[in-house]
Batch of 3 targets.
Target 1
Amino acid sequence: MSESDGGRELAGSAAIVTGSIKNMGRMTAIALGEAGASVLINGRTSTAAAESVAQEVVRAGGRAVVHMADVTDSGQVAGMIARAADTFGRLDILVNNVSNRIAKPVAEITLDEWRGVIASTARFFAPRPRCPISRSRTGPRSSISAASRVMPASPTGRRWRRPRRGWSG
């Protein structure tokens, strides 16, 4: 940190936050912007909502770019990572926030629906595609699985919770 970057600890860093158009992803993107990071805002359904979050990141003091992509599609993920690298010249932080949820009892979830949940939360693109970008610089590199979603009620009426996971290197 230096006086020229306002003492913001993530100044000069670049991040992707998946599922960043609402809730925890939105708050994470804005917090990264407040800390000085450049943030790629990712969503799958609403470009207008993504643009709104990008404006909030900029107002908080960061840089932002929007890239709509479905994280279950490896081609779209590759495009998202390339966009971050092209726009920011680096990728230091990857926040895996996206998680598909199914709003019905577990006993009614089909195998295909469950596969969709797993595909959205598997984080298959981290860290492999990001490593070549990150290796070009020294300093912290991290990938965080931020999503923690409460699953719908089980047949017994209890609620299931998926734990938070992450790594840093």
Target 2
Amino acid sequence: MYSTKYIYPITKEYIYSKISRYDLFKRYVSNFKQVNRLFCSELRELKKGTPSCSITNKYGDLLYYDFATQDCFDPIAYVSIKYNIPFKEALELIAADFNLKPGNYIQPSKPVIELHREKTTIRIKRTEYTAEGLNYWLNESDGLITKEVLEQEDVVQLSHMWINDNLIYLKNSLYPKDVAFSFEEFKNGYRKILRPNYKQELKWRSNLTNSHFFGIDKLKFNNDLLIITKSKKDQIIWSLIGFDCIGTQSEGVSILTQKTKEILTKYNNIIINYDPDTAGVNAFNKTLNELNSLNCFKSIKPLYFNKIDKDISGYVKHNKRSKLAEIRQRICEQ
């Protein structure tokens, strides 16, 4: 499909030394027109007129970010996900498409954007759980996620939120449904904010990195099965129904860090529960390749729900927890 006879080896560093991230995104993201402007995803199925993606520089480098799914990719990872090819083949495809040879340099089509690499500061002020706040979690989980569970999982409700010292959220009795929560299980000011009833593109705020994994310090190691999913809510529900589970920041991020390698190798069997769309399947294949590189698991299998339920949270919400026995049976049969 493409030739790499001119250069060996091709590395991420080599690609970025020759081509700007901006030009890579312009080449491979069909709907990208302008930095920080929303557009519709081409990686997943969605209704018309719901732009939720952006090429943003808010995290220090130009990255693809989907506010609806929390997916976040650099240009090379995006190519890998879009074409469902391994990372190495994505490098080779880019090199071929841009005709890269030793000494070649692609003149950027836009001046390099100066980026600020300081960590985004998110400060919060906690408040007691309100009826609206608790009802959100109870309704989303058919009563599974109670106040006691939220406290155990370090999920707090907010009265105020500041980002880089700018007041972004203030609890207002005139808008009781506009509740906000912070996931507080990480240290050093790292947190993720959820405003479930706010507009989609601002529903989430976060200064977490892809090396933060939900639930990783709450694992019980009671059996040899670990479930990998892609959100805090899913991680909570899997844990409540009796499975060890960790949640990534989004589908497709690297599952391997120094900490996760030590933990993953304590399990014999892995189930990966991502969404049943193209992006979710591609992300599964990427995670599968990473896990196979450890060469220590008896089995690594996907678990997909239907396109309506999408994930364990949707399954519980739509089918009620009386159906959870079927999920346990389904997992045992795998």
Target 3
Amino acid sequence: MQKQQALAEGHIDHFRMEKVFIAKDGNKIYGILDANLIKDAEGNPLHFLGTVTDITETKKLEKQMFLNEKMKAVGQLAGGIAHDFNNILSAVIGYADLSLYEISDENPVYDNLLHIKKAGDRAKNLIQQILLFSRGSGNNKKKRLSSFYNT
């Protein structure tokens, strides 16, 4: 309100502000309000001339761009974590495979190793889904993530 008061008192000739307007239907309309002071020949304030420029679409695009950047950052983070986890998981699966090869299927630990291997394979599939998401090609695969949790 300070700028509006300064304009009304003739201290400034112009001001600009971003403002949210509410339409009759309740929707928000974003606008830039430009207000100009019109003076007479002696420099006394006569009236104001105001214009409003609708920037609603620009605001929507800015919001969409922000969300896209946010999703890109989440994808990069997910990809980095998935890559690191995949390296660890490869060792777990590899050692489970080696152990399964070394022991008899009658050994009581054999079933535990099979479960470790099976869970590792499911986790590896889940990581592949995360990597697809992080590369932005999550729509290419229609598999549901929940399918990897079935035992």
